[in-house]
Specification:
Distance between the termini: 32 Å
Strand order of the largest sheet: 1-2-3-4
Number of domains: 1
Order of helices and strands: HHHHHHEEHEE
Radius of gyration: 16 Å
Structural class: alpha+beta
Largest sheet: 4 strands, mixed
């Protein structure tokens, strides 16, 4: 699916699923909680098939019903539903460890590979900012209790300030998600710690 400004297809959901699991695994969560975070990551953007607007809520309902039909226990499918329903920065917030991991995983996937538009002359700010990110890595340091998002932004394509113009809400959501997991969120852009 390529709805909205950036790619939301198999590449994105695979990264988010893997990253959500890795976050909780690094923080020593139980294996089943890690698996549920991976499932939530894989299904988190399913609501885009209904509409990009309010996709988190429609996706939560879709995922709940799919998992119910597959026989997943109610408590587990409810956890996944809550995580999916709260992953969007316009309407959500971290409400569980799984939702916090999903938020960190989703909001850290910033990269030029997510730009669907191939015509640089028609780039809007979302295209420009994502395209300018040449490297993005989310590091979880369990010893220091930190989540560190390291980005390299090509400032010939856009200034770092443009990143904050469109990603401030996502950055703050990531900060609060990390806090929910009792870790600190740091943002490093072009080797400079900003948060």
């Amino acid at each position: 699916m390529d709805y909205g400004y950036t790619e939301h297809s198999h590449r994105h959901i695979s990264i988010v699923s893997k990253r959500a699991g890795e976050i909780l695994e690094t923080l020593n969560y139980p294996a089943r909680t890690i698996e549920l975070a991976k499932i939530a990551g894989y299904l988190h953007d399913i609501g885009n098939c209904v509409n990009r607007v309010d996709h988190a809520h429609s996706g939560a309902i879709l995922a709940y019903n799919i998992l119910k039909d597959m026989g997943m226990p109610e408590e587990e499918r409810t956890e996944i539903m809550m995580a999916i329903g709260n992953h969007d920065e316009q309407t959500g917030t971290a409400v569980s460890d799984i939702s916090a991991a999903l938020i960190l995983a989703d909001k850290s996937d910033v990269h030029r590979n997510r730009v669907s538009n191939t015509n640089l002359s028609t780039f809007d700010i979302h295209d420009r900012v994502n395209y300018a990110v040449t490297d993005a890595e989310l590091k979880i340091d369990s010893k220091e209790r930190k989540a560190i998002l390291c980005l390299n932004i090509d400032t010939k394509i856009c200034p770092v300030l443009d990143y904050f113009e469109i990603f401030m809400d996502r950055t703050m959501m990531s900060k609060y998600a990390a806090k929910y997991l009792k870790i600190w969120f740091e943002l490093v852009i072009n080797n400079t710690k900003l948060l």
